[in-house]
């Protein structure tokens, strides 16, 4: 039985466990705490920034992958010396550690992006603002932002003076997008690459609230354009595992890249119920070097809605009685305002009804954190 | 988080783990050996015939359920004194321990069965043979048979002299069935009851080889008849959990009961990929007293084929390359002639193609034990 180590004990690692059981893989989790969501498969509890701990854990497995992208590159490079396979590689992951590195890499690949520049002491800020099309524009802290944190839409540089004082700030054109999509795919060692159909992601306050799969109204030419884009990134960066490319769709039907993630991603949760192969299974197949599964959908439409804040455990029964087709995933996390603590998936034959059912289930179990 | 204890560490317990993760239940397994298929969730390794061990294990959980039906009734009755909920109950399980007890109970419920009688010293064997319609008829050891073991089609009593010397033997009419079906459903504490559509089971040498879901060519009247039958048994026996009623379909479209199982059953494996709610999830919902999920199918047809003997691990890659839509479940058991070591499910829109694909995947990975 192939041994796969997962750094991080969060909900993504947790959702890899069912896939591992079905695939017959031995998944071992390096968790941050005893009560992590993935504690069932935890064989180590410790600090992922500690080379010695990660190396000892890595020596027990054949391939190392991730629940999150926070392991420092230096740690991974030192661990790799021992011979363990790391997927995705430290070089690929570096793109997700620093948004400026990501923008530079995508520019080198000539991938369509919003216009961008970096506010730093050596350049003229006015020129950078002009480069990205003037105000309003989008300012991003290069490191550590997520779920709308570290991102501000600004009308003047005064609004990011606190960030500028700390180091370089990424400035991006505020593109007039009509919607946001996620292009989720998986690439295996050796280059086998399998995409799911693009999905539409709907955000509230910068946090994904709903995912609609497939994204409505796509032509086959549009899908081909999306596939070409994400395959280019997957191949050129040499990603192994799931890749999520978050893109903006522009009024002319073209897309530009917003963000990258190199692991199972919130936008791909819907595939667990909608696709023959879930993103967790596909990620494990890719990193364990098993042929990738079919990404076909088994229903015409699927909807995923995130639960933020907290889940009222006692209310789950009522939700299931009213919406027996809802798959309510509870990550087992303590409640906190804005925290992703679970999600609901409903599949069906028609979008409006399916979305309404998923939202109904969510509203029954959700309580503010 | 509700704690559910599962006695038995086999593949059924193993397949409950993904469902438990998704439902947010804490499943703990009482396994027979360290390397059991369900070892990931094992919190006890020991002997399920030992009251003290089972009681200590039971004290840690809120409800006790089963991977198999072998726990002696006396053990369960003593364990229940401590207050743990046992689902299904020892009284219900008693029907599965002894086929003569099952026949008597079903007769009391006036459920359609093959004609039956018991060969024992106090009665005339010739009369029993006549009661069941003469030779050929079916002889069954009342206790311990499974997968065709302990069952013989006989033309004379000489063929079961060895069994008669050991105790009572159940004799049953050899009914002229046109096919075998399984009626799988789940019943919750309090009586909520949800069936899946009946499935057709195809046996080779007395062992289930393929399951076709739904069973082809059923009228709505036929489905209603099947539902009425299995609900009657579930309610009257007071089952909590999954109930599988194996039936013979006769040429006139009526059905008679062959066997009962009170746990997730081989015939229900297809629902993991075909239904919104798998039998493992539904079983856990029923025993943990959570509203039952939707049994709707997400594809027109699903096929499950058993893998007997052994699985050639190295051949799985080839199978996945050729049949990427196949879900190959490997129970992680050592190979042995005739042993169920895994199964394959394929879902699709048309039976012949779907069955052919599942069989193709099986033939690529299967090797004689």
List the helices and strands and how they pair.
The structure is a homodimer of 369-residue chains.
Chain A: E1 3-7, H1 11-23, E2 26-31, E3 42-45, H2 51-58, E4 63-66, H3 73-80, E5 85-86, H4 90-97, H5 99-108, E6 116-119, H6 125-131, E7 137-140, E8 151-154, H7 161-164, E9 169-173, E10 179-187, E11 193-195, E12 199-204, E13 207-213, H8 220-237, E14 241-249, E15 255-261, H9 271-274, H10 279-288, E16 301-308, E17 310-311, H11 316-322, E18 327-330, E19 340-348, H12 351-365, E20 366-367
Parallel strand pairs in A: 1-2, 1-4, 2-3, 4-5
Antiparallel strand pairs in A: 6-9, 7-8, 7-9, 10-11, 10-12, 10-14, 12-13, 13-16, 14-15, 16-19, 17-20, 18-19
* Overall spatial form of chain A: globular
Could you state the CATH homologous superfamily of the largest domain in chain A?
ATP-grasp fold, B domain
Quickly name the level 1 CATH class of the largest domain in chain A.
Answer: Alpha Beta
Given as residue ranges, the uncertain stretches of chain A (5+ residues, pLDDT < 50) are none
What is the CATH topology classification name of the largest domain in chain A?
Answer: D-amino Acid Aminotransferase, Chain A, domain 1
Distance between the termini of chain A: 41 Å
Indicate the structural class of chain A: alpha+beta
How many domain modules of chain A?
A: 3
Q: Mean pLDDT of chain A, rounded to whole units?
A: 95
Nearest-angstrom radius of gyration of chain A?
20 Å
Say what oligomer this is.
homodimer
Q: Percent of residues of chain A in helical segments?
A: 25-40%
Percent strand of chain A equals 25-35%
CATH architecture of the largest domain in chain A: 2-Layer Sandwich
The main sheet of chain A comes to: 9 strands, antiparallel
Q: In total, how many beta strands of chain A?
A: 20
Largest interface, chains and sizes: A-B, 34 and 34 residues
